[in-house]
Amino acid sequence: MKHRLTIAEETADVDASRSEGSQAIQASIRGTEYLVRYQRISPGHFRLIVNERATQVFVARAGEGKQIFANGRTFFVQDADREAVRRGGRGTPEEGP
Fold first, then answer.
1. Which of 2, 63, 61, 56 is nearest to 29 (CA)?
2. pLDDT (tens digit, 0 to 9) for every residue of the chain, 97 residues total?
3. Contact status, residue 14 vs residue 4, Cβ threshold 8 Å
4. How far apart are alpha carbons 63 and 67 in whole angstroms?
């Protein structure tokens, strides 16, 4: 599934797929491949293994996007297609992740 995400004013195309019932995602971002295995610890708290490197991630809804806390840093992430719809751009509210 293709997504367009905005992270701190920068938009990137993300192509991600998950096998049914799997807790792993194969993603491609700007030509770089990632294998992301995940385990939900509690609501909004995940353990990720990205290309064999483990980290804890916390996610919270924040207005029109999500705040993601990982590795001591916070990122605000939005669905770029929904943001375009909100500003009167192309797309429909049903598009995107």
1. 2
2. 899 999 888 999 999 998 777 899 999 999 999 999 999 999 999 999 999 999 999 999 998 899 999 999 999 999 988 754 444 444 433 332 2
3. yes
4. 9
